[in-house]
Structures are given as C-alpha cells and as structure tokens.
Amino acid sequence: MKVFYDVPSNEPQDYDTYSTIYIVGRQEPLAGIRRFGARRGLPCVQNTAPFVLRYFSQDPLPYEFVLFGNGHLIAMAMTAALGYVLLRVAALGTDRTRAIARWALVLALLGINIEYHLWHLVNGTWSVGRQLPLHMCSIMSWLSIWALATRDQRFYALMYFFGIAGAVQAVITPESDFAFPHVRFLNTLVGHGLLVVAGLWVVYLEGYRPTWKSMWKCIAGLHLYAVVVFFVNLALGTNYLWIMDRPPSASLLDLFPDWPWYLIPLDLLVVAILSAMVLPFSRRGPALAASPALANERVDVAEVVANQQSPTSRQ
Description:
This protein is mostly helical. It is built from eleven helices and three strands, in the order βββααααααααααα. The longest helix is centred in the middle third of the chain and has 28 residues, at 95-122.
C-alpha cells in the first residue's frame, strides 16, 4: 500500500499537518486530522478497504480513538443499554426466559473471545505477548462463561469483584489502537461491558451475596495468581496483569510512581474498591438478592411458614 503526502511548501514537513493524501490513484482530503501514527512521527496509513470491510481490517480508520469522545461515549451507552435490557428481561421473565437470557450472555461472551483470537490469527497479529488469556479481564471472561453455563457458585465471588472492578476500568479507559465503530474497538467495549453484566447477574439473579470473608479470599487468590503471572512474564518477556510496567494506554496507573513502586498503591486501590463493593451488602438482612424472581420465591416461602404457624393450620 503506497501513501503519497501532498504537504504545502509553506507548512512544516511533518505528519501532523498536511492537506491531501493520494492513495492508489484516489484523492482523500484529510486536512487537520491527527492520526495515531502521525502523533508518533510515523507515516499515516489510510484504510483503503471497501466501506463495510474497513471496519474489520487491520488498518486503522482515518481518525484515532479519543478518550470520552463521541465514539467512546456512544459505545459505552450502547453497552450499558444492552446490559440493562438483558438483566431487566431476565429479572422480570419466567424461568425459561431467564435461562434463555443466561445462555445468550454465555454465547455472547464466548463469541467475543472466539472472534478476538480468530481476527488476530487471520491478520497475523496473534502473539504470545498479548493474546494469552492471562490478563485479569481475559481470564475472568472464560471463568464467567464456565460459571454461567454450569451455574458453578465457586466462581461467583470472582465474577462479582474482579469481573466488575476490572472491566469497568477497561470500559472507561479502553486499550485500543482502533476507533469506533471498528470491530476491535467494539469487541473491547462490549466484551468488558458484558463482564460487568455477568458480575451483576450472579448478584441479582443467582442470589450471590458478597461478604468480607469472600472479598479477602479473592484478594488472597489474586496475589497468588499475580505471583504465577510474574514468573510467566519473566519467562516470556511479557507484561500480563501490568505488573512489569504500566499499560501503554491511559489508566489510573499513570497517577502512580514508576515500577515497581506503583504496585503498592495499586494493591491498596484494589482493597479500597473491593471494600466499597461489599459495603452495600454488609448492612442488609439475610436476603440473598433483590431480583423480582428471587423476591417472589421468598414471598412464597414466607406464606408457607405463616400458614403452618396459623391456628387454622393446626386444627
């Protein structure tokens, strides 16, 4: 792919300012656009795929991702609306409806993971350094698929604490070289958004209730997992869990000192966030969840107990 730059002679000869790009005989006016590569002094590559296929191509779109830009806000709103509708339909529906919604969530998470790896394999960009499911959200995605499909309660605490806490950070500050509506950007936003939905699902529809004990067990498990990943990073020269260096995209870690000192405030931040996630449940009664389905079940049990204790039932 050849790219020819037509820069006015009275402008600086760099890639931040140019008037027109000529691509394989076509003229594309892109004046004033600052590209991902342009900011780093690299040649700008224009995506020349057909209109629809360009959103699946490995070439970037003719504009870069902007944190909290229109595309980012639209994608977050779409993901939030999708999650709300899924949870609402499942909570108000019948047992069959809830089962269908649960399997829809399972298949959506599975499809997103399969698409992620297939896309990188097809485009020759799959690598051990980035695509192994060792990041927190990656491994939580596969655990969520298993736990939702089998209703394995052993993973509910992990889904609530790390599925929600980790994925919310990724939705707010996504790591993506592509902008909306490229499939890679949508995969990142929707995939992490569904992790949040899965974490809320186990609370509102499966009856899981987080406790201080479960929180500390999850934190202990996280530290053990981080030790294992640390040695994996040393062996492979990778940076999974971002424990060897801060992520290249904007994140909360930018507010902390350099490695390894940022791991200390990061650990304290994890404890603070997870503690805040327990507080709403620590002051409630023994009820498991607040979903209409579970509420109806509790009402039925209460009616049975009341009938057994009434004078009429004793006669």
